[in-house]
Amino acid sequence: MLFPKTLKNRLIVLLLLCSLFPLVFIGSITYSSMYAILKNRSEKGITSNLHNVRLSFENTLSQLNHASQQLVFEGRIGNKINAYLTTSNLFEKKQLYEEIESEISLIHFTNPSLGLIFYYIAETNETIFQNSHVREDFNIFELPLLAEQLKFTYYGPHLSLNPLDGYKVLSVVRKVEFPNRDDVYLYMETDFKLTDRILNTDDMVKDTFYFFVDTNGRIAYSENEEDFPAGSLIDMSYQEASMQKDYYVFEELSNQSWRIVAAISKSTYEREINRWISQFVFFAALSLIVGCLLAFIIWRMIYSPLLHLQKNIRRLKNGRMSELPSLKENVALEFAEIHHEFSTMRLRIDELITDIDHNAESRRLLEIENLLYKINPHFIHNTLDTIRWQARVNGQHETDKLVSTLNRLLHYNLGKGQMAPIEEEIAALKNYVMLQGVRYNFQFDVQIQADPDLLKLPVPRFILQPLVENSISHGLKNKGGDQGVIEVIVREENATHITIAVRDNGYGMTEDEVERMLAGEDGIASRTGMGIGWQYVRRMLELNFPGTASMDIQSSLGKGTIITLCLPIVVKGEEQGA
Questions:
Q1: Is residue 63 within 8 Å of residue 114, measured between CB atoms?
Q2: How many whole angstroms separate alpha carbon 388 and alpha carbon 401?
Q3: What CA–CA distance (Å, rounded) separates 263 from 358?
Q4: With contact defined as beta carbons under 8 Å apart, do 503 and 487 qualify?
Q5: In this model, does residue 552 exceed pLDDT 80?
Q6: pTM for this structure?
Q7: For a surface tag, which of 264, 267, 430, 544 has the fewest beta carbons within 10 Å of its beta carbon?
């Protein structure tokens, strides 16, 4: 799907994305964190309760073991039972019976967790010394086996053998070792409701149920017979089977090698997670609705002023500048400024159109002046050539020489381009000096020293003549005594710069005048005799070498002046204005 082209649709899409992205991003991070937290809390609650249940059952069985130690042959009661079974004296037998019952009652009283206790004679299927009623249809060897260890056999949970009880209990059967017989067994079970109290201590998750797995991998007892029936064999894959039945299972191994397993349905296990997801979905939907409402408001705030601006631009394009309506007062400040600038631009366009009409005639006059500017140099050159040929015909050789020199000088000075080779600049300077020698009635000498390797380098056109002219006109003019000397020296400063020095032995300047000239103060150049020429040279250097060329003046009164230009070496092909 292509991204929408109109601003309206783009604003809607982008604002919706801005609303959805934080929800998706934060929601995914929060979900992963909350899921782990809630899952760990539920898992810790179940495993902690399972651990407590396992310890409670182990402690209960340990108490049964401890109590049975006093009731077997090795104990005091066991000896009395052996005597009771072997004696034929009725009085002694009655006395032993009462003593044994008293001992059993005492043990039962001191162990509140004990329930039904009796001895079972397998050969005659007879129970003796029971402390409570015993069901007639029982078989202690067909109870749900939990584990077998040494002389102990653990059963349960199962229904109590007391017909008046009806609660689930744990029991232990231990063979009583008598010297003359091996068919006597001790049966002990826990107090009624003890097993239910242990299994129902899970306050965190009410829907947890338990099942016990014996040492042979068979379910000895199950609170959920439908999904995990008692008597069925279970291997290590029962966790996968429980997952298929939508259960999570947790197990612990006891010291007697039986296992207790806690199973909880997925819906119950994930109840808090699902509750959090429902709340998040509700608030996400609410945030999305609010985001859409805000997106609509933002769209109206942006789109309406832009639509108004678009209509004004169309009116302006069609030339209807006087029909531009004003903007509503309740728009944002930025749009108000844009429309204000647009109105200002419209007024400026009106002014520019008027200026264009007024300046049309001026442009035509400038074009005529430009043509005249191009015609005048040709007219001057042609006129000078005519004078030169006329002087040559009349035998006026000095006039012919002067006119020829002047024509060459004008041709160079009025030539095209801002840059010229140093050799052309020096040739033009020599022509100028020749003309000035005829003009002034005092003697001066111009000496030029230039490195032949530098003659082809380009420099700004017409920079030597103004400096030499200032030296002749203001530094040497009417100076009595010795002959005036002007030296022009061109040499390479380093691999990147050349220096051009113009030195005279004229009047010179004060130090203050030199500093003020270098600072470019208005009027100082004229007062020192270096007016238009000096300004021209400065402008040419600034134009052609911005920041890379320099000018320096050294002067003292009565000793002359040295003007030094430091110019960067320009490679052929890089000349500006050439």
A1: yes
A2: 8
A3: 98
A4: yes
A5: yes
A6: 0.43
A7: 267
Torsion angle, CA of 97/103/105/107, rounded to 10 degrees?
-150
Q: pLDDT tens across 362-389, in order?
A: 776 666 555 555 555 666 766 777 776 7
CB 551 within 8 A of CB 487: no
CA dihedral 364, 370, 375, 377 (to 10 degrees): 160
- Cβ atoms within 10 A of the Cβ of 190, count? 27
Local structure of residue 193 (DSSP, 8 states): T
Task: Give one DSSP letter per residue of 133-173, joined into a string.
Answer: ---SS--TTSS-EEEEETTEEEEEEEE-S-TTT-SEEEEEE
Whole-angstrom distance, CA of residue 210 vs CA of residue 170: 14
Cβ atoms of residues 252 and 54 within 8 Å: yes
Q: 287-314 pLDDT, tens per residue?
A: 778 777 877 777 777 777 777 777 777 7
Homologous superfamily of domain range 417-568: Histidine kinase-like ATPase, C-terminal domain (3.30.565.10)
DSSP state of 218: B
The dihedral through the CA atoms of 499, 505, 511, 517 has a sign that is: negative
Residue whose token pair is 């390479």: 492
Query: Which two three-digit tokens encode residue 254?
Result: 């006891």
Q: Is 220 helix (H, G, I), strand (E, B) or coil?
A: strand
Tokens 């002694």 identify what position? 92
- A 10 A CB-CB count for 414 gives 13
Query: Encoding tokens for residue 389?
Result: 């040929």
First to last CA, the chain: 57
Please state, in angstroms and rounded to a whole number, the distance separating the CA atoms of residues 441 and 37: 110
The domain spans of the chain are 70-196, 417-568
CB 379 within 8 A of CB 421: no
Quick one: fold of 70-196? Beta-Lactamase (3.30.450)
Q: Are strands 145-149 and 152-159 parallel, antiparallel or unpaired?
A: antiparallel
Task: Give one DSSP letter per residue of 455-484, joined into a string.
Answer: TTSEEETT-HHHHHHHIIIIIITT--SSPE
Q: Which two tokens stand for residue 346?
A: 């419209």
DSSP-derived secondary structure letter, 321: G
- Closest CA relative to residue 418, chosen from 541, 314, 501, 329: 541
| Token representation of residue 78 | 């066991």
Q: 508: which 2 tokens? A: 């010179």
